[in-house]
Amino acid sequence: MTILEGLIGFCSLDGSDMDFRTHKRLSMKKISIFMLALAMAFPMMASVVYERGDVNQSGDVTIADVTTLIDYLLSNEWPAPSGPVHEFVDLGLSSGTLWATTNVGATNPEDNGDYFAWGEIVPNKETYTWATTAWAFYENGALRFSKYNTDSQYGEIDNKTELDPEDDAAYANWGSEWRMPTKAQLDELRTQCTWVWTEVNGVSGQMLTGPSGNSIFLPAAGQRSAANLSGLNSNGNYWSRELYVASGTVKPNSASKLYFGKSSKQTISGARNQGCSVRPVYASQDVPTSDYERGDVNQDGGVTIADVTTLIDYLLSNVWPDPIPVVDYVDLGLPSGILWATHNVGANNPEELGDFFAWGETAPKANYVWEGTAFLYVEDGQKRISKYNTKSDYGPVDNKIELEPEDDAAYVNMGSEWRMPSKADIDELLANCTWEWTQLNGVNGQLITGPNGNTMFLPAVGERMGTSIFHLGEAGNYWSRSLYVLNETVSFPTAAYKIYLTDAGLTWNSADRNCGFPVRAVRVAN
Length: 526
Fold this sequence. Notes:
- 16% of the residues lie in helices and 28% in strands.
- By secondary structure, the protein is α+β, with helices and mostly antiparallel strands.
- Strands 1-2-14-5 form a 4-stranded antiparallel sheet. A 4-stranded antiparallel sheet has the order 15-16-28-19. The chain has a 3-stranded antiparallel sheet with strand order 6-7-8.
- Helix 1 packs antiparallel against helix 2 (28-41) and helix 3 packs antiparallel against helix 6 (305-317).
- The protein starts with a helix and ends with a strand.
């Protein structure tokens, strides 16, 4: 008998099974005895931060999280999370981006909030100069950058053009569900909403109304430069998380920002040392529902007694069990036995687009170009490849022609049971299935029917190139994990195989590795 089984048996007293969902046999006296036994079992256990196990959001995983879970299961009333709760609004934008209703550091929509230099997470400095800005310094009188640099005149190059989460003021101050917006998201806000200069509680700013009819207010908070605040109540300056790009060239001394006045609005550059406002976007793939995510400790989709036992097991062993991915798949009756996921990586339903990935990358992004894509770079004006290269024209050859697990978007995002399909998997799908151009919940795509009669739907997701999406609803592109290799002597390491679909049918072709396509994962039958 394990310690945990002994504790649960001790709690039930009469030997009957506990049922926390009905708790008909549980008295508060028994629960008190149970919690006392737990406290005795690990009174000195060190706590470790783990987001889902931190049920009460205290910053640590402790016995208090167990009691919070049990209280919830007994009462079915989840306690309010500690700390500020940040609201967002759905403006009905094309991308589905959800915008916060307040600035970082603000309590109400009309509050100016805090001012941040780009790449800093602590606001409201006394002075905003290069000498006080993160990653900036002077060397022999010349300005240098130690991070987020694409130009050798500013020092060592790292080719980072987008803030890492730890340098993102929204992520650092509001939590992992929030990010500073991309330039594309600022442009979408600028072009798809109507703007009206107005006042809210005496504060001037722009009221933005989206296609859905919902609105957000952006106060004209001005900006900080040196020790001064200028433009208050006359203009607004809101950072993106991306370096500024002019005529295709990244400018590492500045970042893109949204600027507006009473009668103008545009995305422009701002020196990284300026103090500007931050209006976050909600970055989670899933909009919160009535189920409280942190209570689903074992990630099985519900909050039950199993989550209590998982949490106790963790506290006793200090080893967190692997999360349980809940991903639906379909057996199409293919000869290999391969099972295909029912929806794209990053999607919740078969018709959703999900996330777009460059080949060999495991996170989506805003700009899909050669430089800035994993393992791709330019040297002396020539394209180069540092991994998955079969030709010396592009640099050192490693002859890797299939993505390794750590570079596989399905494996990284869905778990070790999943992989991006191989070229052979695509060939098997084409050879053994039939397809029909149709709509699912208003979304165009191909319905694939396997030999056994089971089906899956591939939406016409289009493709991402640069900062734009093309052919949405007209064509679909899905990455494989296989480099574009025709035979032993003919290969094209700049490209990879993909599924391509239109209303005319399904086939395979190839595309440059920097393109942004969704991923439909496969797993081995078990």
